[in-house]
Design a protein that fits this description.
- The protein is an alpha/beta fold.
- The protein has three domains: about 80 residues, no CATH class; about 50 residues; about 240 residues.
- Helix 8 links the parallel strand 6 and strand 7.
- Helix 10 packs antiparallel against helix 11.
- The protein is elongated and about 100 Å long.
- It comes from Shimia litoralis.
- Required for the transposition of the insertion element.
- Belongs to the transposase mutator family.
- This is Mutator family transposase.
Length: about 400
Amino acid sequence: MTISKDVLDELLSGVENADDLLGDQGLMKELKVRLMERMLGAELTDHLGYEPDAEPSNQQNNRRNGTTRKTLKGNDGALPIDVPRDRDGSFEPELIKKGQTRIDGMDDKIIGLYAAGLSTRDIRAHLEEVYGLKVSADLVSRVTDAVLEEVSDWQNRALEPMYPIVFLDALRVKIRDAESRQVKNKAVYVALGVNAEGEREVLGLWIAANEGAKFWLSVMNNLRNRGVEDILIAVVDGLKGFPDAINAAFPDTTVQTCIVHLVRHSLNFCGWKDRKNVAKDLKRVYQATDDVEAEKALADFEAEWGQKYPSIAPSWRRAWQEVIPFFAFPPAVRKIIYTTNAIESLNRVIRKTTKTRGSFPTDDAATKLIYLAIRSFEKAGRCVREWVAARNQFAILYPERFNR
């Protein structure tokens, strides 16, 4: 739409400075109010069927009935709008709907600030400082609560029948317990899948009091109920009973312990000055060409460090059945499943968002923020690097399952 020069000249005839144009009482704000009121009047004319300066037919009982003052919150601060009414209350304006109190994507701004980790108090202060808007804590809560409907749809959506790789992990978040009213460290369970096209997809998040194999079984059953029929490789941490929980729902899935989890766990047993050398010698174990060479490398490691750090080698042997599947895969696949880097990057995004909060008042409050962090993570890029080589290997290793 082009505005003529004559109209612009007329509008700007009284403007002498920037405040006259952009200030709280400036032309731009007044113009926005007047245009919205004009459009609302046009909507009512269409609804009633007669012009404002005309008379309705004798058979028509519904007529214009003045206006109602409504204050809308937007980028320009508070905008007082006179919304026209009809006698029988049947007029439902489209431009400014009944009950609407915000315009200009103010809801999106509130959700964006919430997703950045700002508290309700911080959001209110930001809106007042930047936009001159005073909003209640209840308003901020109502806007962010709308995210829960989106979370519910996302959490119950249908999934792919097959995922070549699924990374499973849990992180800790401080949440106030509903019964005891005490702040507790609760486990946030996250499942990150890689589909046949190499795209990362967060399959779901779940919150529970503790991380345990029994709860992971319920997570696996949730994935199955949503359409997942097969997982080729599940990469997990060293939680006891985890492999059994996975195989109870997906019997053919290969369970692979995260090597980096094992290395980090091992380094917890040794002194700081020895960590570099211990990590270097452990690398010979997980970079071996096969499980036989890996077992020999572990024996050599134990001979070198066993007396000084007797707990490291046994911790690897206890997890050995979930370590050795790694050696059956070619380098293209090993590179991807070697670590839970994919899910660690997701966890970093979540922790960055949640670290500004000392604790969350409810599970729902934590769910809202973590979901928004996940949404941001997925927008940043979903494809796994160098997936083509890995996909070709999966097609060879699992011809019937991968190509279903």
